């Protein structure tokens, strides 16, 4: 069989989590909470399973969950989405990204990708015959060079993939970023997939500027979210896509043949859970404390860093410590000091030697303290 993804191996998340497990290392590599979700949410799933919510959900998602999400979106962003025609529940953000890219991209279309990029984007583009065109974000601040973006837009550009708050860098887009993007796509047949799975995890008083809050962008954007990040349930794989009705029609044509629908009892449970005063309002404080605890532990180390603006990832530079390639160092640190991380070069298409590792700080305090102490020995 001739591979359709010849440049793709097993994802770095699987590789590093396995190495951490095999070596007994602290796993700050793959991004997932090291603590459990609300017991109440588990009870709700249990209740709905016992009530028989065990068959296929409606293709677009359980209506009560779509409605709850519409209300939450209105309350939080002051933007209305029609639950019937503009909201689709998906099997994780990963499925939503794949479906949105597939809905838009035809063979030969160019798709702008900011790199470092989350690892599912480029395969989704390439499997649809699209051509990724890269705009590089560079340390330490990873801000977007809008002049560079404008130079990469051509008649063939069909889609731009946005991710804010950004994985792996933690960078958060500003309102100026939104205006710049809107200016570049105005009057063009360019659509946008905005991956906003860390929408509620922002630090130091920052606001998440969802692309939906810009009226022009709202009309051409698939906004993708994930309940996994917000409710500490990454293993449940439930996400969503908010998009104007005409885009949602096309999105659902793909979704219905990728998975048809998404796990039923969890959708009912989330619909109820979303009615309650929401724990997402505490997420910034909750994760900022963890970020700061981890960084306080690294204060005496030789790593250099700028505190993450959002997400549950912290990138650090090891340029003053060693010349090793980041992948080699990530493997060595896992084996030798028992702390697993992600080498950030894997998120770039273009070879580089920025010497950056990514650590996930969605872990128990004691785990973060122990990891920082081990890293400080370097
Ligand atoms: N999004 C998570 C991360 O960046 C991993 C998800 C996955 O393993 N596919 O670490």
Protein model, in words:
It is a single chain. The protein is an alpha/beta fold. It folds into two domains: 12-37 and 281-375, Aspartate Aminotransferase, domain 1, CATH 3.90.1150.10; 39-273, Aspartate Aminotransferase, domain 2, CATH 3.40.640. The chain is 39% helix and 14% strand. It has helices at 12-23, 39-50, 63-77, 92-104, 121-127, 146-152, 175-185, 215-218, 227-230, 245-258, 264-273, 283-298, 326-336, 365-375, and strands at residues 26-27, 87-90, 110-115, 131-136, 157-163, 191-195, 221-226, 239-242, 313-317, 339-340, 342-343, 356-360. The strands form three sheets. The chain has a seven-stranded mixed β-sheet, sandwiched between helices. A three-stranded antiparallel β-sheet has the order 9-12-11. A two-stranded parallel ribbon has the order 1-10. Strand 5, helix 7 (175-185) and strand 6 (191-195) form a beta-alpha-beta unit. It is globular. The chain starts with 11 loop residues before the first helix and ends with a helix. The structure holds glutamine. The site of glutamine has 5 residues, from loops.
């Amino acid at each position: 069989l001739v591979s359709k993804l010849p440049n793709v191996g097993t994802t770095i998340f699987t590789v590093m989590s396995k190495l951490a497990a095999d070596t007994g290392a602290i796993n700050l590599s793959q991004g997932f909470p090291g603590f459990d979700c609300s017991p109440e949410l588990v009870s709700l799933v249990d209740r709905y399973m016992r009530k028989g919510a065990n068959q296929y959900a409606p293709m677009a998602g359980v209506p009560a969950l779509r409605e709850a999400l519409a209300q939450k979106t209105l309350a939080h962003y002051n933007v209305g989405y029609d639950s019937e025609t503009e909201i689709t529940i998906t099997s994780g953000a990963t499925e939503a990204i794949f479906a949105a890219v597939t809905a838009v991209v035809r063979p030969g279309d160019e798709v702008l990708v900011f790199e470092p990029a989350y690892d599912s984007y480029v395969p989704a583009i390439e499997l649809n015959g699209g051509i990724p065109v890269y705009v590089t974000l560079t340390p330490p601040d990873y801000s977007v060079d809008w002049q560079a973006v404008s130079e990469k837009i051509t008649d063939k550009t069909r889609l731009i993939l946005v991710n804010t708050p950004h994985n792996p860098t933690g960078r958060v887009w500003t309102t100026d970023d939104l205006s710049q993007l809107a200016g570049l796509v105005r009057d063009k047949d360019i659509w946008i997939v905005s991956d906003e799975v860390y929408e509620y995890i922002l630090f130091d008083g920052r606001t998440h500027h969802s692309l939906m809050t810009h009226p022009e962008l709202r009309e051409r954007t698939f906004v993708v979210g994930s309940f996994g990040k917000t409710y500490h349930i990454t293993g449940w794989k439930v996400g969503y896509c908010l998009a104007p009705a005409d885009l949602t029609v096309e999105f659902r044509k793909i979704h219905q043949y990728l998975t048809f629908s998404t796990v039923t009892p969890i959708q009912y449970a989330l619909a109820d859970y979303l009615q309650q005063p929401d724990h997402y309002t505490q997420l910034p404080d909750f994760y900022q404390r963890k970020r700061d605890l981890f960084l306080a532990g690294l204060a005496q180390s030789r790593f250099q860093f700028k505190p993450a603006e959002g997400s549950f990832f912290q990138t650090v530079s090891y340029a003053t410590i060693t010349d090793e390639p980041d992948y080699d160092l990530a493997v060595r640190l896992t084996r030798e000091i028992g702390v697993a991380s992600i080498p950030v070069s894997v998120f770039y298409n273009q070879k580089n030697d920025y010497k950056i590792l990514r650590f996930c700080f969605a872990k128990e305090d004691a785990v973060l303290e122990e990891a920082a102490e081990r890293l400080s020995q370097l």
